Amino acid sequence: MKAFDFDAIRKFILSTSESTSIYVGCDSKQFQTYTLFVTVIVVHIDSCRGAKIFSEIVKSRKIESLRERLLKEVDYAVYAALNIIDVIGNRHLEIHLDINPNENHKSSMVVKEAIGYVVAQGLKPVLKPNSIAAFSVADHIANNF
Predict the structure, then answer these.
(1) How many domains, the chain?
(2) Which of 7, 69, 124, 138 could form a disulfide with 63 if both were Cys (CB 3.0 to 4.6 A apart)?
(3) Spatial distance between the Cα atoms of 112 and 106, rounded to a whole number of angstroms
(4) Can you tell me the distance from the alpha carbon of 3 to that of 56, in angstroms, rounded to the nearest whole number?
(5) pLDDT tens digits, 103-119
(6) Residue 25 belongs to a domain
(7) 30 part of a folded domain
């Protein structure tokens, strides 16, 4: 549907200072016949001066299993991050997961798996309520699709 232009993203990141932060996250939305995944790369300029948002939208077969859908979101975010890791340098990079660690929330069922997967890739996971790239930015794009 809409793919990342990783060359353009890398070029933009390289044009920013090393005090810039990068947040990568993914959210999904169920439709009657398919699942929509929105992955975002948020480049927070100098970690204080606004941001540029890059997004990718993927239409997938309908995924009924919440566990499978959440882990697919994690996979999309990690994949995006690994495609820009070569230009991160000393910039702060976080993988924002649309997962609530509170056991009262269904998404908590994958918290250990998701964190383990992200850490195994050498990346830093961030969960709700601090994972704004996933639960706010990607969610906004998915809900306005």
Answers:
(1) 1
(2) 69
(3) 13
(4) 5
(5) 999 999 999 999 999 99
(6) yes
(7) yes
Mind listing the pLDDT tens digit for each residue in 32-48? 999 999 999 999 999 99
Tokens of 29: 């939305």
- pTM for the whole structure: 0.97
Q: Which domain holds residue 15?
A: 6-143
Which residue is associated with the tokens 């994958």?
Answer: 110
Q: Using the structure block, give the residue that is written with the tokens 């994949």.
A: 79
- Residue 78, domain member (yes or no): yes
Nearest to 3 by CA among 80, 63, 73: 80
> Look-up: residue for tokens 């890059």?
54
Ramachandran angles phi, psi of 57, nearest 5°? -120, 125
Output DSSP code: residue 136.
I
Q: Is residue 1 part of a domain?
A: no
Please report, for the domain that includes residue 52, its CATH number. Answer: 3.30.420
Res 141: pLDDT:
97
Between the alpha carbon of residue 82 and those of residues 29, 64, 108, 118, 139, the distances in Å are 24, 27, 24, 11, 22
Helices of type H across the chain: 6-14, 66-82, 111-120, 132, 139-143
CB–CB of 144/40 below 8 Å? no
How many angstroms separate the CA atoms of 129 and 49, rounded?
22
